[in-house]
Amino acid sequence: MNILIVSAHPDPASLTNALSGVAAEQLREEGHEVQVCDLYAADWKAVVDRSDFPALPPSERLRVAVASGEAYKTGTLTRDVIDEQAKLLWADALILAFPLWWFSMPAILKGWIDRVYAFGFAYGVGEHSERRWGDRYGEGRLAGKRAMLIVTAGGWEPHYGPRGVNGPIDDLLFPINHGVLYYPGYDVLPPFVTYRADRMDEAGFKETSEALRDRMRTLFTETPIPYRQQNGGDYSIPAMELRSEAVDPKLVGFAAHVRHGL
Ligand code: FAD
Predict the structure, then answer these.
(1) Which residue positions in the chain have pLDDT lower than 50?
(2) Residue 178's closest CA among 262, 244, 60?
(3) What is the pLDDT of residue 57?
(4) CATH class, range 2-224
(5) Which long-range contacts (C-beta less than 8 Å, at least 24 apart) are formed by 126-133?
(6) Residues with a CB atom less than 6 Å from ligand 1
(7) What pLDDT sits at residue 262?
(8) pLDDT reported for residue 226
(9) What's this model's pTM, rounded to 2 decimal places?
(10) Alpha-carbon distance 48 to 71, whole Å?
């Protein structure tokens, strides 16, 4: 199988990049093809702006979704974006590796998503009508593929527990797992999170690497997070709310979008 690892850390010798390397090594040992995209090494342009749409006439307003859709359709997106989209289509699994910065991903990775996830490619896919709200949340261009996060965090595990002060890790990662990965169709695996990462010593690195190798061995067999499919009958259209006949109305928040709770 083909795997794309996108790693987002400014220091090549960082723990984050070391874990990306461990994952790549293990996957190759399993016989898979692996491409690692180090966004800092590639000097990835992180912001969407007018230069992303060279065919957009200077007199026209930049409406990003419209320009993105037009450029995708006409093959006039920039070379760097087209290359990354090709990698996403090539990969049977996508792994995003990053340090948790301000409870989310580093800006360079967010910018990779903003630019690579073009309209017509990752969103704005499928029929949009009163009957159907597109192919998304379990359906879409990247359906049938798997995705997973490798995250390092400075905080302790209980800080991210169900009653931890930072908020539960599954809630914090929900916008990425559900919003960025499940949205265009990926089956999303539980994240691999390393807590107290700044305190990691050699023994801890060895233990963490072994645990990560185990996760890589089961990348294609592990059960994904059972998010509800948008078009699977649980949601009303066009309100896109959970139907009380289908899902207990007492279930609210992020956990309600997982079939058995988060
Ligand atoms: P590094 O600094 O590269 O390494 C961490 C440790 O691992 C070092 O001690 C290193 O020696 C050791 N290590 C052991 N073996 C190896 C090896 N083989 N290769 C590399 N290193 C090894 N934390 C939170 O919990 N929540 C937040 O919201 C948050 N926001 C942040 C925002 C910013 C802007 C910054 C800078 C940090 C933030 N942090 C936060 C902390 C951050 O999550 C951690 O600093 C980060 O996850 C550590 O990962 P790293 O890859 O940068 O580690």
Answers:
(1) 261-262
(2) 262
(3) 97
(4) alpha beta
(5) 130/237, 130/238, 131/237, 132/231, 132/237, 133/230, 133/231, 133/237, 133/238, 133/240
(6) 9, 11, 13-16, 18, 99-103, 152-155, 197-198, 200, 202, 205
(7) 47
(8) 98
(9) 0.97
(10) 13
